[in-house]
């Protein structure tokens, strides 16, 4: 009988507004479900929503998209303890560092009410950029958790890139397994937007919040108050106050057209990307960035910060991964692509697709995930 793994994540399918974390877990489950007995434990609603999913039974084991899932109507220690006890899992994989679900399970483990081994994936939450948001609250929790040794040495951390591993190592001496996320491919045949010299269509597709840095993108575009430039924004308004700040800049433009296009369901991403030339996401931190990968797979020229695993784009003539302190280079990069002809755009777009195809290798990553889980299962709890 295959070993039992419980993946615990704040939000999951049919939700999609949480973006990358849902895709990470979905890809993990899809690729490993034939090797391990996987169950997912998650909340009963999508990110940013209070209304629960329709036509889904809560607090019981159900099958959704060929995966076993428990949707929790309420997150409390007793109900979680009961469900984990009944599942009798070998490993619990925690898909967040600061979430209530993670903290509850770590406390239960600390009290020796859970026997399963723990793997903890912070998902970029321990980066300097992420920790700077609600900093006092997070640092207080880190200090307290260290005091009670909540994250003891028996917990294995999972990092998805070298940068994230370094962030974890700054705070914890635990063992860290570095394995990239499993990527999904845009299955639709992609046809990019036509391009002429002096016109440019840019797109931002992500959660609208401080971390994703839309305000920075809008500041950069102040240098291009040009009616031949279009900037469309997609994504849930996670932080309404932050969006209001963005709106002040948007309303200050005379000619540049910025339009908020709402939330995109995952199956429509390739259709959305087909309308644009450049993907603009000056994020403060990404431990992977599924939407960046999808944009590159579609051949959009990425204009991103260097705070992602894709920080060598210029070396491969595959776009721009830039230091956020150097705004003038962002301006210069937009100017370069603005002046591309169709032929120049096609050449750069092809380079982008070659770059990301070469960087991603799901087969190797699946082998590494399998080994990580198998090695964790056989670790002696007393060692």
Tags for this model:
2 domains, 14 strands, 13 helices, 6-stranded parallel β-sheet, 383 residues, Rossmann fold, 36% helix, 8-stranded mixed β-sheet
Q: How would you sum up this structure, described in words?
A:
Strands 3-4-2-1-5-6-7-8 form an eight-stranded mixed sheet, sandwiched between helices. It has a six-stranded parallel sheet with strand order 11-10-9-12-13-14, sandwiched between helices. It contains 13 helices and 14 strands. 40% of the residues are buried. It has helices spanning 20-32, 77-87, 100-110, 128-131, 135-147, 162-171, 214-220, 240-250, 269-273, 290-297, 327-338, 342-359, 362-377; strands at 4-8, 37-43, 61-64, 67-72, 91-94, 117-120, 156-159, 176-178, 200-205, 229-234, 257-262, 278-281, 301-305, 320-322. The protein has two domains: 4-183 and 361-377, 3-Layer(aba) Sandwich (Rossmann fold), CATH 3.40.50.2000; 200-359, 3-Layer(aba) Sandwich (Rossmann fold), CATH 3.40.50.2000. The longest helix has 18 residues, at 342-359. The chain is an alpha/beta fold. Helix 7 (214-220) runs parallel beside helix 8 (240-250).
End-to-end distance: 25 Å
The Rg value, from CA coordinates, equals 22 Å
Secondary structure tally, helices: 13
Into how many domains do the coordinates divide? 2
Average pLDDT: 92
- CATH class of the largest domain equals Alpha Beta
Residues in helix, %: 25-40%
**Secondary-structure-derived class:** alpha/beta
Uncertain segments of ≥5 residues (pLDDT<50)?
none
CATH architecture of the largest domain: 3-Layer(aba) Sandwich
Using DSSP, what is the number of strands? 14
Percentage beta strand: 15-25%
Q: Report the sheet with the most strands, covering strand number, pairing sense and barrel closure.
A: 8 strands, mixed
């Amino acid at each position: 009988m295959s070993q039992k793994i419980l993946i615990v994540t704040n939000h999951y399918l049919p939700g999609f507004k949480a973006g990358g974390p849902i895709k990470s877990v979905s890809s993990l489950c899809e690729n490993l479900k034939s090797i391990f007995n996987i169950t997912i434990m998650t909340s009963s609603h999508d990110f940013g929503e209070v209304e629960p999913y329709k036509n889904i039974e809560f607090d019981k084991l159900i099958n959704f998209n060929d995966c076993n899932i428990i949707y929790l109507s309420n997150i409390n220690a007793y109900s979680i303890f009961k469900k984990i006890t009944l599942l009798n899992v070998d490993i619990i994989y925690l898909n967040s560092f600061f979430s209530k679900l993670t903290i509850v399970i770590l406390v239960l483990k600390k009290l020796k009410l859970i026997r399963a081994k723990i793997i903890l994936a912070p998902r970029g939450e321990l980066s300097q950029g992420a920790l700077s948001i609600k900093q006092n609250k997070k640092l207080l929790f880190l200090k307290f958790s260290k005091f009670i040794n909540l994250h003891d040495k028996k917990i294995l951390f999972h990092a998805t890139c070298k940068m994230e591993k370094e962030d974890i190592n700054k705070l914890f001496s635990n063992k860290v397994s570095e394995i990239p996320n499993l990527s999904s491919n845009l299955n639709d045949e992609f046809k990019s937007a036509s391009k002429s010299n002096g016109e440019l269509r840019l797109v931002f597709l992500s959660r609208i919040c401080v971390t994703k840095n839309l305000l920075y993108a809008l500041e950069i575009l102040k240098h291009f108050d040009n009616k031949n430039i279009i900037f469309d924004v997609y994504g849930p308004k996670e932080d309404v106050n932050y969006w209001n700040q963005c709106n002040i800049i948007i309303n200050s433009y005379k000619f540049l057209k910025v339009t908020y296009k709402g939330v995109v369901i995952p199956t429509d991403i390739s259709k959305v990307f087909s309308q644009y030339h450049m993907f603009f996401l000056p994020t403060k931190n990404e431990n992977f960035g599924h939407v960046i990968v999808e944009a590159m797979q579609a051949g959009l020229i990425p204009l991103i910060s260097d705070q992602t695993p894709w920080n060598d784009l210029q070396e491969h003539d595959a776009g721009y991964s830039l230091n956020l302190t150097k705004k003038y280079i962002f301006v210069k990069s937009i100017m370069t692509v603005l002046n591309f002809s169709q032929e120049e755009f096609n050449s750069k777009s092809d380079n982008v697709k070659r770059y990301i195809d070469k960087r991603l290798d799901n087969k190797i990553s699946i082998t590494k995930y399998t080994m990580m889980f198998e090695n964790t299962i056989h670790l002696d709890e007393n060692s």
